Amino acid sequence: MSHSILVVDDETRLADVLAAAIEDLGYRTVAVDSARAALMELEQARFDLVLTDLRLPVMDGRALLKEVRKRWPDVPVVVITAFAAVRDAVELVKEGAFDYIAKPFEMEDVAATIRRALRLADVVRENDRLRGELEGRYSFDTLIGNSAAFRRVIEQVTEVCETRATVMLNGESGTGKELVARAIHFNSPRRAKPFVAVNCAAIPEGLLESELFGHVKGAFTGALANRTGRFAAADGGTLFLDEIGDMPMGLQAKLLRVIQERSFEPVGASRSQSVDVRLVTATHKDMRQAIAEGRFREDLYYRLNVFPILLPALRERREDVPLLAGHFIVELAEAMGKRVTGFTPAALSAMATYDWPGNIRELRNCIERAVIVARADVIDERDLPQDLFEPGRREAPSGLPRDLDAELERLERGFIVEALRRTDGVQVQAARLLGIAERSLWHRIKKLGIRVGRSVSE
């Protein structure tokens, strides 16, 4: 897709000639003869670059630059000026213009300046897009659940994310500890700085120190160049140490020193390096038992456990299964290009009564497999893995609920909350998704005590 360029010059003939020459380079152009006309064009259509003369009647190029920078900060402005006014153009660059072109000019110079400005604008725009995607992916909206146990987790994340406090996440494998860690980072004042994750259990003990703190050339056999460690890479941001309970005792002492002194020494270095890092750690182990058995330093534990958050297992928040399943089916069906839109009541019931020893990770894998094998636009019991139907793996051995009324109410609530969440609380659209009348939906919302607003909750 070609870029759009707005040319501004009060000499109409010159503006038209310049616009035509730029069009010959493959860009779309619009030419206007005043700053006011330029602002009107910018309000009506998107432009990737403004190319303006400095000397304009009524509102000059300097005033136009100021207005564009204020209202469309991602649109670069290039100023054209007579040679005698180059000093003014240099001042404009300091005020935010991308560059200037002195008259008389060669078209090759104009083309080169345009290419540089558009290339930089594209990079900035792409970075903003990626940052927005990251922030959206790890916003509070991605922490899905209406159960009391999970609402407590969200409350704790809300309380701690704006602080500098060190956080320890505890929970079984697959409960979403890294997702919570990322949500803490991307909703904190450090969101513009790096989030760096390290799995302490996945890196051999002999390499973990170099991985965390880096090393200098020649520090050990194979150290052929200096290497930046994860602490330095996360400077100003957040370092997430997953499976902290598996960290070797020798490294625990060095980590404690980093926390106390906010500095460290790369392997083989003789000088300390200062660092400003917020630590978030995670473990599935009983840390107090590890301390009692001499596998973890008690003083380090108290440094890391400043703000503990316990993530509940999925079996402890069964009412969230329909919400999570609905979220995953949208994400996975879109990624696979399949038209799978929901679940049969039998499939949801089977998932709701399963124990989920692998927690959310296992649920996502289950939905992924079901989307792959599904032959209809809804997932049925037969599309689910057989693990869900093995004896001893379900809540009730017979496969029947212990309290039918409570089970039906829980499933109904799950369907309604998920439909309202997908439609941002618009009940007409939610009723259409559920295949019921709006009045029927209203009565069910009232009966179940579901609160509908900008966010949907029980």
Summarize the topology.
Layout: E1 4-8, H1 12-24, E2 28-32, H2 35-44, E3 49-53, H3 61-71, E4 77-82, H4 86-94, E5 99-103, H5 107-137, H6 148-160, E6 167-170, H7 177-186, E7 195-199, H8 205-213, H9 230-233, E8 238-242, H10 249-261, E9 263-264, E10 273-274, E11 278-283, H11 287-292, H12 298-304, E12 307-310, H13 321-336, E13 342-343, H14 345-352, H15 359-373, E14 378-379, H16 404-422, H17 427-434, H18 438-448, E15 451-452, E16 456-457
Parallel strand pairs: 1-2, 1-3, 3-4, 4-5, 6-11, 6-12, 7-8, 8-11, 13-14
Antiparallel strand pairs: 9-10, 15-16
Helix pairs in contact: 2-3, 13-15, 13-16, 16-17, 17-18
Describe this structure in words.
Helices cover 47% and strands 14% of the residues. It is built from 18 helices and 16 strands. The chain has helices spanning 12-24, 35-44, 61-71, 86-94, 107-137, 148-160, 177-186, 205-213, 230-233, 249-261, 287-292, 298-304, 321-336, 345-352, 359-373, 404-422, 427-434, 438-448, and strands spanning 4-8, 28-32, 49-53, 77-82, 99-103, 167-170, 195-199, 238-242, 263-264, 273-274, 278-283, 307-310, 342-343, 378-379, 451-452, 456-457. Helix 13 (321-336) crosses helix 15 and helix 16 crosses helix 17 (427-434).
Please outline what is shown here.
47% of the residues lie in helices and 14% in strands. The protein is built from 18 helices and 16 strands.
Q: What is the highest CATH level, the class of the largest domain?
A: Alpha Beta
Structural classification: alpha/beta
Put simply, the count of helices is 18
Number of domains: 3
**What's the end-to-end separation, in Å?**
47 Å
Give the overall pLDDT as a whole number: 84
Q: Report strand %.
A: 5-15%
What is the share of helical residues? 40-55%
Strand order of the largest sheet: 2-1-3-4-5
* Largest sheet properties: 5 strands, parallel
